[in-house]
Amino acid sequence: MGQIEWAMWANEQALASGLILITGGIVATAGQFTQWYLGAYSIAAGVLVCLLEYPRGKRTKGSTMERCGQKYLTRVVKLFGPLTRNYYIRAFLHLGLAVPAGFLLATILGTACLAIASGIYLLAAIRGEQWSPIEPKPKERPQIGGTIKQPPSNPPPRPPAEARKKPSEEAAGIPTGGPQENPMPVNDEVV
Amino acid sequence: MMGCWVLNESLSIVLVLSWLGVNLYLFIDTFYWYEEEESFLYTRVILGCFRGPWRRQLDKNLKFHKLVAYGIVINAKGEWKKGMSRGVRVRDKMQTEDSHPPTKKTPKIMISHQSSELFDSKLETPTIHIVAHLFNLEHYHWSQSPEAEGLVAALSKLGDTPNETYLNPIRTFHTNTIAELLTTIAGITGLLISLALILIMTSSTEFIRQVSYELFWYTHHVFIIFFIGLAIHGAGRIVRGQTPESLLLHNITFCRDHLEEWQAQCPVPQFSGKEPSAWKWVLGPMVLYACERIIRFWRFQQEVIITKVVSHPSGVLELCMKKRDFKMAPGQYVLIQCPSISTLEWHPFTLTSAPQEDFFSVHIRAAGDWTEALCKAFGVEGQPLKEPWSLPRLAVDGPFGAALTDVFHYPVSMCIAAGIGVTPFAALLKSIWYQCCEAQTQCKLNKVYFYWICRDPGAFEWFADLLLSLETKMSEQGQAHFLSYHIFLTGWDENQAFHIALHWDENADVITGLRQKTFYGRPNWNHEFQQVAFSHPSSNIGVFFCGPKALSKILQRMCRVYSSADPRGVHFYYNRESF
């Protein structure tokens, strides 16, 4: 179990809890139960949790499946910087949001689920995980003409491409280019 | 074309419709029973129409769901009725870590979750049940308030004096509904099993199964709490109806409107709680599950002999094993346990050997805790060679899953494997070789097109070896044209392209060493299907695919587009079993 990224599960659990809080809240408010104002609170808390948890964080290993349309919310969540990156803060936020909903029967299931999610986030935070946004890879612009190599500047015979380097690289000890310098004069003898 | 889809899916459609039909029948039956039944008239008075009954017959639906779910779980093991398991169209999904090879699948537990969308109502029924309960409790609570009057108030007060039995489970207005929840068996078990269900669901999403299979496996065992809670959920007998004896003495049609007569003509009605019935529904599946675990334990005891251990490059471990009475079909998988690593975990792996071989094999890649420990225990990657007697003991349960024997029913088959979906095809291709090339028996199948699309062939080098050996064997037998395979590498860079271009004119492919060249980029399916349709103008062609959903949709479309309208023309049959 050593390699589990707990935050991934915490994220699923928190998202589910958010939805359950919203449902319970709607039931309590629409049914005008006693203390229905807690139901209204629960709807608001549920919406907040869902918005926060919808963008999935990036896994440390391997590729991460993005949720449909999450890139817009990713930008918003990223804006909060360390508040959303740090899982300790998330854990305590979820715990805090869950408590008031625990006083109404219709939303008590949401409380329990969110409390569990908070616990898993705490575990993730202790293990040093943090939220990082899934960013789209920048499209590599194809460089026009980037693969066209410069035509050779010397007439033949010429040394191979590696030797045809600029003078600044002479210091590295690479033999210079240029025409072959013969150690002794060569005649074109036709016998 | 719609007809094609309907025919392809007909068995699933029939199953789904009958499942929905039974649910609907149970719903309506119980609904009307609670709505019409005399003994519940006073309950209905307090709760109002439609709410009490809603909750109750959804109970029945819930129980039926579980019965069916477990029935399917057992069936899909293939131990009983193979036809039933195929009909369910098991969507076993392969585990991935990036482009790492598959060899791991989600086991039969997935089936109980019915990956098909139509079965996603596993959450709707409990939700409606809970919501209805909430309304009921509110109504019971409100009926005890000072503002309640008339019949409702009179009914709620019943039970305060001795000799009276109560109807309203909430006895005073001053109780907190939450306290009621936590002090009744129904309340506590209801909360617990809802939590259990939610935990199971959040840890079973496809994403989490990919992230950590072990988390999914262990959390799923919370179902034990779920079923125990479900069985005792009704033990508190909160739903109350009038006793039959009281019905005889107390005429409800008259008495409900004549409250003042209740001491005189109408003796006080007596109530009793309804018997819990969940255990009757749950008992069957629990017994079946217990049988399954007993069988697994018995199989655990059976000896598994490891005949060969091969360590392939890029960390793939091939294990060849033998077990008494082990019979498999291509496309199936087994569950493997290694007691020295973990006594509780059984991990699924697709079988990569053919049934005609006298051993069975799996290919395992180190992609998580357990697989890494296994690879280390078997001496992969630089570890010193192990002696046969020092290898850890393995237990094997299976084989499970839908068998892939449809390939042999068509004269021409197209097999398409994308990425990690290539593993079951190893077994299939080997099986095709044994059945159609080597054996002297007549084989209906006489041409196989195999398409393999992957990003990084390095991890599947063992499969390329298999293709090479098949290629050699077939050309020796003079059947070089039986298997035509095309490999598509979708992840390549400029350096590779240069290298390939340089060696283009050689006979063997530079990357795989195979005689048929590798293609770069994705296949042009229109072109491929056109070619195949052109080469086999009046045949039935089976298309078998394993890989991501997006490609599955494309291939289905291709099958529809290139099947001819003429019944004597070419017809592509898409087989959606992902195995």
Automatic annotation (TrEMBL), chain A:
Family the entry assigns: Belongs to the p22phox family.
Subunit structure, interactors included: Component of the phagocyte NADPH oxidase core complex/cytochrome b558 complex, composed of CYBB (heavy chain (beta)) and CYBA (light chain (alpha)). Component of the phagocyte NADPH oxidase complex composed of an obligatory core heterodimer formed by the membrane proteins CYBA and CYBB and the cytosolic regulatory subunits NCF1/p47-phox, NCF2/p67-phox, NCF4/p40-phox and the small GTPase RAC1 or RAC2. Interacts with NCF1 (via SH3 domain). Interacts with SH3PXD2A. Interacts with DUOX1, DUOX2 and TPO. Interacts with NOX4; this interaction mediates superoxide generation.
Protein name per its UniProtKB record: Cytochrome b-245 light chain
InterPro entries registered for this protein in UniProt: Cyt_b558_asu
Cellular localization per UniProt: Cell membrane
Organism: Capra hircus
Ranges annotated as spanning the membrane: 12-30, 36-55, 103-124
Predominant place of localization: membrane
GO cellular component: endosome; NADPH oxidase complex
Chain residue ranges for the region called Disordered: 134-191
TrEMBL record, chain B:
CDD domains, per the entry: NOX_Duox_like_FAD_NADP
Chief location: membrane
SUPFAM superfamilies hit by this protein: Ferredoxin reductase-like, C-terminal NADP-linked domain (SSF52343), Riboflavin synthase domain-like (SSF63380)
Cofactor(s) essential for the protein: FAD
One MF term in the entry's GO annotations: metal ion binding
Residue intervals of the FAD-binding FR-type domain: 299-406
Transmembrane segment boundaries: 12-34, 181-203, 215-232
GO biological process, one term: superoxide anion generation
PANTHER family named among the record's database cross-references: NADPH OXIDASE, NADPH OXIDASE 3
Binding partners and assembly: Component of the phagocyte NADPH oxidase core complex/cytochrome b558 complex, composed of CYBB (heavy chain (beta)) and CYBA (light chain (alpha)). Component of the phagocyte NADPH oxidase complex composed of an obligatory core heterodimer formed by the membrane proteins CYBA and CYBB and the cytosolic regulatory subunits NCF1/p47-phox, NCF2/p67-phox, NCF4/p40-phox and the small GTPase RAC1 or RAC2. Interacts with NCF1 (phosphorylated form). Interacts with NCF2; the interaction is enhanced in the presence of GBP7. Interacts with RAC2. Interacts with RAC1.
Role this protein plays: Catalytic subunit of the phagocyte NADPH oxidase complex that mediates the transfer of electrons from cytosolic NADPH to O2 to produce the superoxide anion (O2(-)). In the activated complex, electrons are first transferred from NADPH to flavin adenine dinucleotide (FAD) and subsequently transferred via two heme molecules to molecular oxygen, producing superoxide through an outer-sphere reaction.
Protein name, UniProt field: NADPH oxidase 2
Organism encoding this protein: Capra hircus
